[in-house]
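quick one, 240 residues, struct below
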Amino acid sequence: MTRVLLLGGTGDALRIARQLGPEHVYSLAGLGKVPDDLSCEVRVGGFGGSEGLARYIEDQRISLVIDATHPYAAQISANAAKASNAARVPCWALRRAGWQPQAGDDWRMVDDWTELTAALVAFKRPLFTLGREPLAHLDEIPSQQFWTVRCLDAREAHPRARILATRGPFTLEGERALFSAEAFDVVVSKNSGGNATEAKLEVARERGLPVVMLRRPALPAVDREFATVADLLEALQVSG
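---
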């Protein structure tokens, strides 16, 4: 019988986890809400790098690793591929397609934080949708800027930033209301793909706002890649 270790933390991963029975394991890094309505085992916390993950795979008699982590969780994906190889079990990955610019979009592509901040010099009211990374740079906010940072982490008030501790999905109507209230002049985003947070791009397009887009990192080769949850679940059912 296949015993799955599902590496998650995304909405897509939760959809997969809801289809897993008690013999399988859903692993979370410990960020955000831990689901309490799953039939499978839920594990919270790290493994200690690829070597620790390989030991866990062997100790728990895992026979398939599924990487359904965020497209920007490059280190976790690298550890999953390396550990699976070391433990001699297959590794599958759910890798949803990124967003593509459409007519009317003004995307400025960047590779790291240094390029990102350089691309923001001319703006005053950026909306950051990168997760928690901007929180480490609040003391570096340029004098002409006021940041809005949307992420899962709640933080104390900051004189030059507003922290929106919230989780998607975000509706088009909700995003329109937020953009109107805050008067953003640029959006900062990862190219996460999917529908949960795409509405901000549509509103940016409607309002003629540029988007500073962080490119996706390179991810390791795995035994099988899937573009959709449905395709992965179908393959999992066939594999037994």
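The first helix runs from residue 11 to 17.
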